[in-house]
Every structure is written in C-alpha cells, then in structure tokens.
Write a structure and sequence with these properties.
26 helices; Myotubularin phosphatase domain-containing protein; Prot-tyrosine_phosphatase-like; coiled coil; protein phosphatase binding
C-alpha cells in the first residue's frame, strides 16, 4: 500500500514569505482578512485562541495609554494645585481606568468569535509578520507581487480599535462629570488625550512588531527603573532610613505607585514565561546528507529541511527530477543517535569509502518503520538530533496545541464524494435500531456536553427513561459515563451496554435512577443480565476504597457479575514496547522467539478475543443482555464491545459497517486517541497515557480475518492503513480525545475526515477482499493458543521480505479475477441457453398450432 510517510513530487510554492493560494485559486496573492499563509503556500483560516502572551500584549498597550492619562493628570495637578483637588484628581484617575477597561472589553467582543471575551488570532512567527509590505516578491525580475495583509490578525488592528474605543468612551463619559470637576479640567484632560492617542497609533504602526517581541523586557525594565526614580525622589533631602521609610509609608499615593510598579513587574515576568516560539526548537534548518536510507532504498546526496510540522528530504532522481519525502514529527517515535556510527545499523546497504566517517541518526517511526540520517559533520548531526527530539516532544499529546498539528494545515488534494464527518451520524444509527425495536429514543440531555464530556451530544436511550434519570445516573458514574446502548441483537433483542464504574465508594452509595436505567435495558423475555467487569476482583476492591467500585448485588438483583481481567493501558504499552524490541531484533531465531513470548502480546490478543466470545455467547445463545465496564469505560470496555459486535453483526464485517463501528465505538465513545497514540512501541513514555488499545483491537480483527477469510468484505490493507493513520495522519479523524475536543477546535471545519479519503472508489478498491461471501451467522473463532499468531504483515513488514506473501496474494487475486470472468461467461452462456430454449419453445408451439389448424381444416 502507501508509504508510511507522505511522499510527493516537488511542490510549487508561492514566491515570498506571505503570498499564498486562496479559495482553490491557482494564482498567488495576498490572503483574505483573518487568514495567513502556511508552509504549503495555502491561505489558512486563523483559528487559534488568544494565548496568554497575546492577551498580555494587548493589556500592555492598554496600560501604555493609561500611563499617559495619569501622566497628564499629574501634570494638571502640579499646574493647578489649589483648584485641582485630590478628589478631582482621583475621579479622573478612576475615569481613565474605566475608559480603558471598557475599551478593552469592547475590543475583545468585536473580533471573532464576536460576542465572546476572546479572539481567534493568527500565530505570530517572525518579526517580519508585522511588516509584510517589505517582503513583496518581484516575479521574473519584472512584476512586484503585492502580498501585503494583516498577517498577525487581529493583533495589529485590535490596538487601533482599542484606542478608538477609548477615545470615544472618553468623549462620552468625561463631560458627564462637569458638575463635579470643572469644565476647564475636563477639557484639558481630553485635549491631552487627543494629542497622545494619535502618537500612540503612529508608534504602534511603526514599531508594533518590536513592541510585541520586547514588551515583557520593557515592562520589567520600566517597573524597576520607575520604582528606583520614585524612591530617589522620596529620599531626596532625608538624612536617615527611618525618616525615609516614614515618608514612604505615610503617603497613600506612594503605596499606590509602589503597587502599580509591582503589578507591572509581575505582568512582565508572566509575559516573559509565556512567550512561545517554536522556531527556537530548530537548531539547524537545513542539513546535507551523504545518504538517507529507509527500508526500501538509499537516497544519496539528500538535503534535509527541518520545518515546524515535518522533515522534508529532497533528493535528485536518475531522470534529473527532484523528489521529496515527508516525515511528520507526529509519526516520529524515537530518535537514536549513534555517534560514532556502527556498522550494524547499516543493514545490507552498500557503503562508499567516503561514508566511513559519517554519523548516523536512527529515527524510529510510530508506524514501525526505521529511517537512517547519515550526516558527515558531527556538530550538524548533534543539532539535527536535538532539533528532532525537541520537536517530537513539542508535538506530543499533552504538550502541543492540537491546532498546531498538520491536519489543520493540510490542503485537501482530492474530491470528496462522501463527507466522512456526516457519514455516520447518531440519526443514521438510530434508523437501523428502529428497524429492530421501537423502545428507544434520541436524547439531547448531553447538549453542550453538559453531563459527560467524553460522550457525544446526542445519545440513544430507552424511551421509558427521562432525561432527569440520565443526569442522576451520570453523577453516579465515573466521568459521567452512564450506561449507554451500543448494540441491539436482531434475533434475541438482547443488548450490549457500556459505561464507566459506579462511584459507590467504601460507604456503598446507591443511585436508584442508575438502577432504573440499567434495568430498563433488559428484554421482556429475559429479565436477567450480566455485568462484565474487565478488572480483577482485587482491583475492584482497591478502586472502591478510592471512591469507585462495582455494582452491589443487593441493589442490582437482576444482574449477575463476571470479572474478566484485561490488563490496563500501562501494561499494554509495556507489552507493545517489548514486542517492537523483538521485531527489530535481527539475532538468532531462539532469542527472537523468547523475546516474543516475554512480550505477552499474543496473550493479550487471546484474552481480548476470549472475553468478546463470552459476550457474544451470552447475547446470541443465552439471549441475555450484557453490561460492560472497567474503570473509565474508554479503554478495555470499548475493545470488548467492538469485538463482540464484529462476531455478532455481519454488517460490521463490511467496509462501511467497520468504519461505522470505529466511529461509533471508538471515536464518538471517547477513546482518547491523541493521548493513547502519542507514542508507539519505540519511544519513551512522557505522560504515562500511551497505550496500543486500538492496535490491539485491529490485531484481534486480523485474527478473525485469518480464521474467517471469506466473511469479511475488507482485507488487512484496511487494518494496516487504520493503524498508520491512528498514530500519524494528515486527516483529523484520530487527532482528538473526544467529541468535545473536536467541537472546541472546530475540527470538522478545519480538517478533512479520513473516511472521506477512504470512501473513494480508487481507494476502496485496494481494501476489497476478493473472497468475500456475506456470512449472516455469528462467528465463533478459536481462541486456543496455537490459533493466535503474530500479525507479520504489520509488525514485520519492514524487517522481513514481504514479496513472497505479496506474490501469493497477487496470484490469488489473479485466480479470483479469472474465476469472476469465468462465472460471468457462464452466466452469459446460461442466459443465451435460456433465450434459445425460449425461442425453441415458441417455435415448437407455433408449429404445433399450424398442424392443429391444418387438421381442423
């Protein structure tokens, strides 16, 4: 199938820094307001929320205007000391604060999202972002391409709007206090403001970029400097420290000035710590490589360009054309520098004499591939390795803003036939459910994720249960994950239910609404059910001491409990790491088999399939409903429910049905893909949330595919593609932890669905199983140890020769294709035979009719 990292021909980028393509146009030019050009020369809508640093920048510009107000008010007080009393001065101080505060609030409300105290901003990357007019490129030494627009929208225009609002509010507000403050003082304060506001606007227009990058230092420096001057003025004429402190503390104005200086100092320090610049992570943007290697071949004389999203390896082909290989940081799992280079990492590739002193950086990818960067200069190798390691850490599941990831920058390069974001809605699944039973309804109780952040907004619930019951049940379950229907068996009407553990605690709390909800899902025929807990009984007891637990028998009398221990996510991650260590081990067979056995990965596969078979047997044979949960209900719970549905439901074995299953039981059900897939089997754990749960699900599905080769519409190519996209993708399907996060970052609007790409005829064709024959019966796989085998086409596809298997598969396809042709030809002959028989019958009847007429005559 496709390569693990995006491979593409030379890109035609727009000239200059800020020219880009917009609205699918083929002409380079300035981006629209609210857009900025990305690394692909595409004008991309800015959707980043206002960061603390940007917020503090606007605050700084507001305080700058406020300081000028106070300066001129102080000057007015010194000139008119008798007439301009302290009360009048304080009122003007208060009015200036109120004006700036209202202007600040109105400014935030003015920009998108309109009506909210925040802004959607374009990321500031360079100082030149504030001065794009100086970077308009000249094309072909003739025409100057105009690409001047507000690159850092709306940070520039926001300051102009802020000062405009402040001026208007001042003109409206201050005249109202003429009765308290004399007219001449009001006029003097307004005139002074009308003089310095234009000066501030000019200062911002000319030096806005310099102020943006330096205002934390300016704030800290000015706070310290002004405080020193203030202390000097107080100490002037004082002979000792006691009189100085008495004078300092005896005046309330000194306290106010000192407090303002402290606030300025803190604002500067906070802003300094919040300054984010991803470009400082790139220590060496361009590196020349004597050779770059992957599992397929070597690329001599390559150039590596390190960007914010990916590494681009450019090499010259034999025909003279240039080709690019892209490796995303989200696909990099581990950086392993080997200095000096060791020959065993050279694999079987030939070495040239000039490469004897190169330094190798081994890059392990999450998609299980290995790449080798051979650098000739040690210093360059160190900087490249440090840059890659820093960028991998930055794009980790917890460290990086999700909008920084490549799917938010990916320009769709194909026609969408079916929108994947709307292909598998709750309504479409509910319509299938109504064909089986009319005892269910769609509830909006989770609107705006009010009761559960990891469930979708619309949910299918029993008709007999009110929304108030659902709210009470959500309060009783961990993370608000109350019992929810995920499958209804057509023949028995038994259902599979999933949820999180109940919060009974050591006091054995009770929730009658939760009991009613669970009992409402039992069938009328069999008023009994099973609760399958994917934790060991000892683990449940420990969880109960911490506030969790399991359903008490006395309160859930209609349900029997069964414990099927499936290891938690941290144990699975450790097992997967050991499996990868075994797969890359090129040593003797005995050692490899020992490592494979010690990983316990096949044991996890066996246990998951066994548990799914128990659920399927209970649903189909015993016609009894099953409620499944572990601790949080978004890991092993989803693994069991999805595998059980594959066994029970023939529709889940089709391509569309399998996609719907993943969307419904993994993505919409709240499996935290971004956290779980932040590391594969090579990288070190950074937050302890990594786990190959989805990989285990795909492996179990592959085991079923091997045992029931004709019962699945798809082949293992689909499973391998899903594995790769779960860990690193240019699509937005697997980059969020839940539906709330997808809505928060507007993922549907700003990213492309993987299903939109998969469900195109030319792509679907590669997933089809030529031996597929619909099987409406339940699958009963063998879970014996000898039946569970290693998925070599995934785990070893880069470490052993896959050509023989591909040749056999191609031969299968050829034979199947000929069979289809022969069947078609046989059907055609049958049709012709039927047509001849029909004509013969007609002819016989005609002759018989003629004979009968002759006899009659």
């Amino acid at each position: 199938m496709s390569r693990n990292f995006l491979e593409k021909s030379k890109i035609y980028l727009c000239p200059g820094k800020y020219c880009g393509y917009q609205n699918n146009s083929t002409n380079c030019g300035a981006c629209q307001r609210g857009y900025r050009v990305n690394t692909e020369s595409i004008c991309q809508l800015c959707h980043e929320t206002l960061s603390l640093y940007n917020f503090m920048y606007i605050v700084f510009m507001a305080l700058l205007a406020l300081s000028f107000h106070w300066y001129f008010i102080n000057r007015l007080q010194k000139k008119k000391q008798r007439e301009f009393t302290l009360v009048k001065q304080t009122i003007l101080y208060f009015l200036s604060i109120l004006e700036i505060l209202l202007a600040f609030i109105f400014t935030l409300l003015t920009f998108p999202p309109i009506g909210k105290l925040t802004m959607n901003v374009c990321q500031v990357k360079l100082l030149s972002d504030f001065y794009p007019m100086f970077h308009n490129p000249i094309v072909n030494y003739r025409k100057k391409l105009r690409c001047s627009y507000e690159v850092v929208y709306p940070l520039q225009s926001a300051i102009f709007v802020l000062y405009t609002y402040a001026s208007l509010i001042m003109l409206l507000l201050r005249p109202l206090f003429v009765s308290i403050i004399h007219q001449k003082f009001i006029s003097a304060s307004i005139y002074s403001a009308l003089h310095f506001y234009p000066c501030l606007l000019i200062l911002h227009a000319l030096c806005g970029g310099f102020i943006y990058f330096s205002f934390p230092i300016l704030t800290i420096t000015s706070a310290i400097f002004l405080n020193a001057i203030h202390f000097t003025l107080i100490a002037n004429g004082e002979n000792n420290w006691i009189s100085f402190i008495r004078k300092l503390c005896g005046n309330i104005q000194n306290w106010i000035i000192y407090l303002v200086h402290v606030i300025l100092l803190l604002c500067g320090l906070i802003s300094l710590t919040q300054f984010e610049d991803e470009y400082h992570l790139i220590l060496l943007p361009t590196v020349f490589l004597p050779v770059f290697r992957d599992h397929l071949q070597s690329y001599p004389e390559s150039i590596v360009n390190v960007t914010l999203h990916n590494v681009i390896i450019t090499h010259k082909q034999s025909d003279g054309n240039y080709k690019e290989l892209w490796i995303f940081y989200t696909n990099m799992d581990a950086i392993q520098p080997k200095f000096p280079m060791k020959t065993e990492f050279r694999s079987q590739l030939p070495l040239s004499p000039s490469m004897s002193s190169t330094y190798t950086i081994i890059v392990r990818l999450k998609t299980l591939e290995t790449c080798y960067f051979d650098v000739s200069v040690l210093d360059d190798a160190i900087k490249l390795a440090e840059s890659l390691d820093a960028l991998i850490t930055y794009t980790d599941g917890l460290n990086c803003d999700v909008t920084f990831l490549f799917p938010f920058c990916f320009p769709r390069d194909f026609e969408v036939i079916q929108d994947g974001w709307t292909a598998f809605s709750v309504e479409s699944e509910f319509s299938r459910l109504q064909a089986i039973s009319d005892e269910w309804r769609i509830s909006d109780v989770n609107k705006n994720f009010a009761i559960c952040e990891t469930y979708p907004e619309r949910l299918v619930v029993p008709k007999s249960i009110t929304d108030e019951y659902l709210k009470r049940s959500a309060q009783f379950r961990s993370h608000g994950r109350f019992p929810l229907l995920c499958y209804l068996h057509k023949s028995s009407k038994s259902c599979i239910i999933r949820c999180a553990q109940p919060l009974i605690g050591s006091s054995v709390r009770r929730c009658k609404e939760d009991e009613g909800l669970v009992n409402a899902m039992l069938t009328q025929r069999h008023k009994k059910g099973w609760i399958l807990d994917t934790r060991h009984a000892n683990v449940v007891k420990s969880a109960q001491n911490k506030g969790g637990g399991c359903e008490p028998d006395q309160h859930y009398a209609l349900w029997k409990r069964l414990h099927r221990h499936l290891d938690k996510h941290t144990v699975l991650q450790e097992s997967f790491t050991k499996l990868m260590d075994a797969c890359i081990d090129q040593s003797e067979k005995d050692r490899w088999l020992s490592k494979l056995d010690n990983s316990n990965w096949l044991l996890h596969v066996k246990e998951a399939l066994t548990t799914a078979c128990i659920v399927a047997q209970t649903i189909d044979c015993e016609e009894t409903s099953v409620l499944i949960h572990g601790s949080d209900g978004w890991d092993t719970t989803l693994l069991v429910t999805s595998l059980a549905q594959i066994l029970l439901d023939p529709d889940c074995r089709t391509i569309t049905g399998f996609e719907a299953l993943i969307e419904r039981e993994w993505i919409q059900a709240g499996h935290p893909f971004r956290l779980r897939c932040s590391r594969s089997g090579f990288g070190r754990s950074t937050h302890g949330q990594e786990s190959p749960l989805f990989t285990l699900f795909l492996d179990c599905t592959w085991q079923l595919l091997q045992q029931f080769a004709c019962s699945f519409e798809f082949n293992d190519t689909l499973l391998i593609e899903l594995f790769q996209h779960a860990y690193s993708s240019k699509f937005g399907t697997f980059i969020f932890n839940n539906e709330k996060e997808k809505l928060k970052y507007n993922g549907i609007k700003h990213t492309v669905s993987l299903w939109s790409y998969f469900n195109r005829p030319e792509i679907l064709h590669t997933f089809l199983n030529p031996f597929y024959e619909p099987n409406l019966s339940v699958l009963w796989p063998s879970v014996a140890a000898q039946s569970i085998i290693l998925w070599r086409s995934l785990y070893l596809r880069f470490y052993e020769n896959q050509i023989p298997q591909r040749e056999v598969w191609d031969e299968y396809l050829l034979i199947k294709g000929k069979e289809i042709q022969l069947r078609s030809y046989v059907n055609k002959l049958r049709q012709e035979l039927l047509e001849l028989e029909r004509k013969c019958t007609e002819k016989t009847n005609m002759i018989k009719t003629e004979k009968d007429s002759v006899v009659t005559i």
